[in-house]
Backbone:
C-alpha cells in the first residue's frame, strides 16, 4: 500500500468532491436512467411508448450486425493500443537517445496531430489513401509495387486502414507521457547499464519498462477506454463501410438511433455498450495489476 | 554516459531517419492545408497535392465575407476557456485528494469519475437534449460547458492523479507536521510540480472543447451562440463541396489551437526535460 | 464495519445523484415563445455561406431577404443546420417534441409525424388559393399526397438520375449517340474499358449515391411506379420480386464488366465528378443537382462534349424507357402546434418564401424549382436546354419514401453487392427481411 497523508476534515472533503460529483451526476445519471428506461420500450421518437420488457435485449443477442460491430471495435482497439502505446513508447525511447538530432523539435511537432480535429484528420487520410493521386499509392508505385490494395474499399483490410490514422493522431500524446517518466529515470541507473555493456534494446526493456510501468498502465487504460468508443475518424473515413466491415459499436448505435430512428433499440445498444466497455476496461485493469484501490 | 563523440553508425542514421519521417508526417497536414487554402477549386481538382500556381487569398476573402466568424470564434473561446478553467481547478483538486488520501468510498468515487471514460458521446445526445430542454437551459452561454467539463474531467483526473502518485510525499508530510493545510500543500507544493502535466491537460481540454461537434450541434439553436465547428459545416454543401474553401475555413479554425499549443508546448517540454520529479 | 461505512458513503452519493437527476426529470420551465403571430421559428439546411451554396441556397437567401423586407414587423428565427447533420437535429427535435413552426421533412417521416400530430395537412392552404396552386409544375405534390391530403410544399422537382457523358470518348469507341438499349450500353461499357477509360465513375462512399441515383432507376427499367406503390402500401409486391432482383443482377453484371472505378466505395460524389471533369471517366450518374457543378467546373470547350441522357431501356421492355426516380425529395412542412394567429402568418410566410421569387432565383442559378420559373429561355445554357428536353417520367424515389430501417439496408448492402460480398438474390432478401 502506498503512503498517504492524514485525512483532512470532513468539510474539506465535501468541498473538494461535491462540485465535480454534482456536475457528473447532472450530466451522466439522467441520460443513463433515460436510456435504461427507454431500452425496455418500443419508442421510435413519438409521444407514445409501450413497455416491451426485454425484447430489445433479446433482439440484440441475435443481431449479427451488433456482434460484428463489437468484433470490429475490439479489433480496432487491439490495433490502436499496440500502435499508440507501443509506438509512442518506442518513439519516446528514440527521443531520449542522444544520437537523435533535434530532439526538442521532434517532441514538439509529433504532438501536433493531437490538437487537430477529427474532420481534418479524416480529410488528410482520405487523401493519403486516395487511389489515383494519394501519397501512399504514389509512394508504393514509385517503389515498383503492383497490385496495391484498395485501402478503404477492401473489407479484409479496411479495419487496418482506419486504425492507422487513429494511431498516427495520438502517438504524440503517449510519447509525451512516456517521455515524462523516462526523463525521471535517474541517470545513474542508465549509466550503470551502459557500463555493463547492455545494448540500447536490452536497456530499454529491462530497466526502463519496470520503472515506467505506472505510466504504461495509465496509457493503456486511456487508450483502451478511448478507442472502445471511437467514432469520428471512422465516420469521416468510411462511415462504417463498405457494408458493415468497419462498423464500430458507436457507429452502429448512431445508425440505429439517427438513421433508422429506433431510439429504444439504440438505448438498449447504449446500455450494452457501456456494460461491455466497463467489462473490457475492468478486465484490462485487472490484467495490468491495477488493484491499487483495494 | 560517456561524452566521447562517436561516429554516426548506420543504426543511428536509420533512427534519425525514422523519427524525422514521422515528424514530417505530423507537420504535413498543416502545411498541406495552408497551401491548399491558396488554390482555386479547379486547381484542387486537377491535383490534390500540387502547390498553388499563384498566391491567391480569394478563398479567405470569401470565407470571411460569408461567415460571421468573429462571433463564432468569440463563442468558442468563451466556452473553451470556461471549460478549461473549471476542469483545471476541479481535476487538480480531485486528482490530489484521490491520490493522497485514503478514505472510505474513494474507490467508488474514482470509479464513478472513470465512468466518464466509457460513455459513448452520441448515445448521450438525445437524453441530454431532453434534460436540458426540460430545465430550460438550452441555448445559454453555459449550456455546452456542462457536458464539456464532464467529458474532459475523467482524462484530466486520470492523468493528474497518476502524476501526483509519482511525486514523493515527504515534502507534504513535513509540511503537514509544520501545520501547513491541505489547500496550501496543493497550491504551493503539488501544483508547481505538476506543471508539465497541467500543460498537457490544458492543451487536451482546450482542444476537445474547441473541436467538439455533436453537442454543439444539438444543444445550441441560436446562431449568436454557435461555435466554430458547427459554423464550419456550412462550407459542406448539400450535394457539392468546394474543398479549397472548406480547407480555408479549417485553416482559420485551427489557428487558435495551434497558437495555444505553441504557447504551452514549451511548458510541457521544459517540465519533461528538467525532470522536475526525481524518482 | 469497514464494509458498512463504505456502503453508507455509497448510499449518500447515490442519493445526491438521484436528487439531482430527479430535479432534472421533473423540473420544467422552458421559456415559451411569444404567441402573438409576430414571430416564426424555422429550421432548414439552406447554407447561408452564399458562395459555397448551390441554387437552392441562393434562392432561399434571396427569397428570405425579400420576405424580411416586406414584413419588417415579423421576426423569423431561422436556424441553419448543414444537410448531413440536419437529420440528427430534426430527429432529436421530433423525439423531444420541440419542433419549430416550419421545417423540412421527407415523406419517410410523415407516418411518425402524423401519428404524433407534428405535421399539418396543407390541402386547404393550397386548394383555397388557386393562384398559389397554379404556380407549381404538374405532379409537384404527388409525392407528398397521402390519404387524400397534401402534407408538404415542394421547393424543387428534379431527377435523381441523369447520365452525364463525354461525347468525344463515345465517338472514339464508335458510338455517335447515346445507346438505345441495354445490350448496346453494355457493349459501350466494355469498349470504353478496353480503350482505357473508366466507363462510369462512381463515388458511393456516402452509401446513397448508387442506390438512390443509379439502382433505383435501374429497377424502373424492369417495372413502373405501380410495383413500388404496391410494395409501399403492402399490397403484395416484395423486394424478392423479379424486377428488383433482375435490376440487382444487372448491377452485378455491370460491375463484372468493369463499368465502375475500383475504389467506388471509398470516393464520394464530389470525387466521382472530378474523374469526369479530368476526362478519366466517360460517364457519371447523379441527380440533376450535379448540372450546376458540371457547368461551373468545366471549360466551355469541354462542355461542348458533355451530353445528358438516362439509362437506356432493357431489350424488349421499351415501355419503361422514360421512367426515372425523381421528384421533390424534401418538402416544407408546418407544425400545427401553435396559435391560430401564428398559423395564418406561418402559412402566408411559406407561400411567399417558396413562391415565384424562390423559383426564379433557383432557376437562374441552375436549379430545378417546383414552381414554374419565369426566366428568359434564351438565357439558358445549352446543357440546361438539353436537360429540359429529356422526356422524364418521375416515379417515387425509394429512399425518400421508405422508412429509415429499410433504407439503411438498401444503402448498406449495396456496398456489399458492388464488391461481390453478397449475391443479387441475397441483396433483395436482406432488404425484404427488414420490411
Residues:
Amino acid at each position: 500500500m502506498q503512503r498517504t497523508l492524514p485525512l483532512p476534515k470532513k468539510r474539506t472533503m465535501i468541498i473538494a468532491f461535491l462540485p465535480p460529483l454534482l456536475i457528473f451526476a447532472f450530466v451522466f445519471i439522467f441520460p443513463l436512467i433515460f436510456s435504461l428506461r427507454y431500452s425496455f420500450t418500443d419508442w421510435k421518437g413519438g409521444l407514445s411508448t409501450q413497455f416491451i420488457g426485454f425484447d430489445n435485449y433479446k433482439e440484440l443477442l441475435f443481431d449479427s450486425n451488433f456482434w460484428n460491430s463489437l468484433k470490429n471495435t475490439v479489433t480496432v482497439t487491439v490495433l490502436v493500443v499496440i500502435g499508440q502505446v507501443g509506438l509512442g513508447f518506442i518513439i519516446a525511447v528514440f527521443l531520449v537517445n542522444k544520437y537523435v538530432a533535434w530532439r526538442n523539435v521532434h517532441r514538439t511537432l509529433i504532438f501536433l496531430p493531437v490538437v487537430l480535429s477529427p474532420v481534418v484528420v479524416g480529410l488528410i487520410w482520405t487523401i493519403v489513401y486516395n487511389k489515383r493521386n494519394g501519397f501512399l499509392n504514389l509512394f508504393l508505385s514509385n517503389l515498383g509495387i503492383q497490385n496495391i490494395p484498395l485501402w478503404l474499399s477492401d473489407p479484409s483490410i479496411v479495419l487496418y486502414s482506419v486504425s492507422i490514422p487513429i494511431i498516427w493522431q495520438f502517438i504524440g500524446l503517449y510519447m509525451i507521457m512516456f517521455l515524462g517518466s523516462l526523463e525521471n529515470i535517474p541517470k545513474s541507473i542508465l549509466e550503470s547499464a551502459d557500463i555493463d555493456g547492455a545494448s540500447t534494446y536490452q536497456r530499454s526493456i529491462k530497466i526502463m519498462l519496470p520503472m515506467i510501468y505506472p505510466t504504461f498502465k495509465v496509457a493503456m487504460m486511456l487508450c483502451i477506454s478511448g478507442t472502445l468508443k471511437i467514432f469520428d475518424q471512422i465516420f469521416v473515413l468510411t462511415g462504417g463501410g463498405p457494408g458493415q466491415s468497419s462498423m464500430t459499436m458507436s457507429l452502429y448505435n448512431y445508425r440505429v438511433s439517427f438513421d433508422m430512428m429506433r431510439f429504444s433499440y439504440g438505448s438498449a445498444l447504449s446500455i450494452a455498450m457501456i456494460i461491455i466497455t466497463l467489462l473490457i476496461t475492468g478486465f484490462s485493469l485487472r490484467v495490468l495489476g491495477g488493484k491499487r484501490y483495494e | 554516459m560517456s561524452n566521447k563523440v562517436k561516429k554516426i553508425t548506420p543504426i543511428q542514421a536509420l533512427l534519425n531517419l525514422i523519427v524525422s519521417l514521422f515528424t514530417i508526417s505530423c507537420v504535413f497536414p498543416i502545411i498541406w492545408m495552408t497551401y491548399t487554402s491558396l488554390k482555386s477549386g479547379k486547381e484542387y481538382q486537377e491535383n490534390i497535392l500540387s502547390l498553388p500556381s499563384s498566391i491567391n487569398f480569394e478563398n479567405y476573402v470569401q470565407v470571411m465575407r460569408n461567415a460571421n466568424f468573429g462571433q463564432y470564434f468569440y463563442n468558442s473561446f468563451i466556452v473553451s476557456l470556461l471549460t478549461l478553467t473549471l476542469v483545471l481547478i476541479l481535476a487538480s483538486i480531485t486528482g490530489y485528494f484521490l491520490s493522497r488520501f485514503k478514505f472510505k468510498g474513494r474507490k467508488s468515487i474514482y470509479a464513478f469519475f472513470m465512468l466518464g471514460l466509457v460513455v459513448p458521446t452520441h448515445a448521450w445526445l438525445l437524453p441530454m437534449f431532453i434534460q436540458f430542454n426540460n430545465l430550460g437551459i438550452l441555448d445559454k452561454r453555459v449550456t455546452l460547458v456542462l457536458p464539456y467539463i464532464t467529458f474532459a474531467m475523467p482524462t484530466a483526473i486520470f492523468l493528474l492523479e497518476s502524476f501526483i502518485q509519482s511525486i514523493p510525499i515527504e515534502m507534504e508530510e513535513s509540511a503537514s507536521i509544520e501545520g501547513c493545510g491541505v489547500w496550501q500543500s496543493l497550491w504551493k507544493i503539488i501544483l508547481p510540480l505538476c506543471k508539465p502535466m497541467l500543460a498537457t491537460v490544458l492543451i487536451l481540454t482546450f482542444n476537445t472543447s474547441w473541436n467538439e461537434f455533436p453537442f454543439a450541434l444539438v444543444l445550441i439553436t441560436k446562431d449568436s451562440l454557435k461555435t466554430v465547428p458547427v459554423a464550419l459545416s456550412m462550407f459542406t454543401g448539400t450535394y457539392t463541396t468546394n474543398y479549397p474553401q472548406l480547407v480555408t475555413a479549417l485553416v482559420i479554425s485551427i489557428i487558435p489551437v495551434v497558437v495555444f499549443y505553441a504557447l504551452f508546448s514549451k511548458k510541457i517540454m521544459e517540465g519533461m526535460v528538467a525532470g522536475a520529479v526525481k524518482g | 464495519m469497514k464494509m458498512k461505512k463504505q456502503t453508507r458513503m455509497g448510499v449518500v452519493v447515490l442519493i445526491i445523484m438521484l436528487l439531482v437527476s430527479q430535479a432534472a426529470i421533473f423540473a420544467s420551465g422552458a421559456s415559451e415563445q411569444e404567441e402573438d403571430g409576430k414571430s416564426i421559428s424555422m429550421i432548414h439546411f439552406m447554407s447561408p455561406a452564399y458562395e459555397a451554396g448551390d441554387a437552392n441556397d441562393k434562392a432561399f437567401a434571396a427569397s428570405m431577404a425579400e420576405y424580411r423586407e416586406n414584413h419588417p414587423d415579423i421576426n423569423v428565427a431561422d436556424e441553419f443546420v448543414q444537410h448531413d447533420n440536419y437529420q440528427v437535429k430534426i430527429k432529436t427535435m421530433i423525439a423531444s417534441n420541440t419542433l419549430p413552426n416550419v421545417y423540412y421533412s421527407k415523406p419517410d417521416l410523415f407516418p411518425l409525424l402524423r401519428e404524433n400530430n407534428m405535421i399539418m395537412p396543407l390541402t386547404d392552404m393550397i386548394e383555397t388559393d388557386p393562384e398559389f396552386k397554379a404556380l407549381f409544375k404538374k405532379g409537384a405534390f404527388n409525392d407528398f399526397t397521402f390519404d387524400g391530403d397534401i402534407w408538404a410544399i415542394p421547393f424543387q422537382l428534379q431527377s435523381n438520375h441523369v447520365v452525364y457523358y463525354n461525347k468525344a470518348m463515345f465517338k472514339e469507341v464508335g458510338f455517335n449517340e447515346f445507346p438505345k438499349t441495354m445490350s448496346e450500353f453494355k457493349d459501350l461499357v466494355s469498349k470504353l474499358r478496353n480503350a482505357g477509360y473508366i466507363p462510369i465513375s462512381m463515388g458511393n462512399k456516402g452509401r446513397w449515391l448508387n442506390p438512390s441515383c443509379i439502382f433505383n432507376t435501374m429497377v424502373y427499367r424492369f417495372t413502373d411506379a405501380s410495383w413500388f406503390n404496391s410494395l409501399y402500401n403492402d399490397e403484395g409486391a416484395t423486394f424478392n420480386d423479379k424486377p428488383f432482383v433482375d435490376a440487382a443482377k444487372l448491377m452485378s453484371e455491370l460491375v463484372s464488366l468493369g463499368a465502375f472505378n475500383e475504389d467506388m466505395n471509398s470516393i464520394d460524389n464530389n470525387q466521382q465528378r472530378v474523374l469526369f471533369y479530368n476526362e478519366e471517366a466517360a460517364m457519371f450518374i447523379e441527380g440533376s443537382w450535379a448540372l450546376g457543378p458540371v457547368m461551373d467546373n468545366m471549360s466551355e470547350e469541354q462542355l461542348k462534349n458533355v451530353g445528358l441522357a438516362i439509362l437506356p431501356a432493357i431489350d424488349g421492355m421499351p415501355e419503361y424507357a422514360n421512367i426515372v426516380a425523381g421528384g421533390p425529395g424534401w418538402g416544407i412542412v408546418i407544425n400545427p402546434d401553435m396559435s391560430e394567429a401564428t398559423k395564418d402568418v406561418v402559412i402566408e410566410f411559406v407561400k411567399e418564401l417558396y413562391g415565384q421569387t424562390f423559383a426564379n432565383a433557383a432557376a437562374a442559378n441552375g436549379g430545378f424549382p417546383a414552381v414554374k420559373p419565369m426566366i428568359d429561355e434564351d438565357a439558358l445554357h445549352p446543357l440546361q436546354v438539353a436537360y429540359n428536353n429529356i422526356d422524364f417520367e418521375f416515379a417515387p424515389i425509394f429512399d425518400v419514401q421508405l422508412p429509415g430501417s429499410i433504407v439503411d439496408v438498401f444503402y448498406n448492402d449495396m456496398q456489399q453487392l458492388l464488391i461481390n460480398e453478397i449475391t443479387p438474390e441475397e441483396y433483395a432478401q436482406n432488404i425484404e427481411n427488414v420490411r
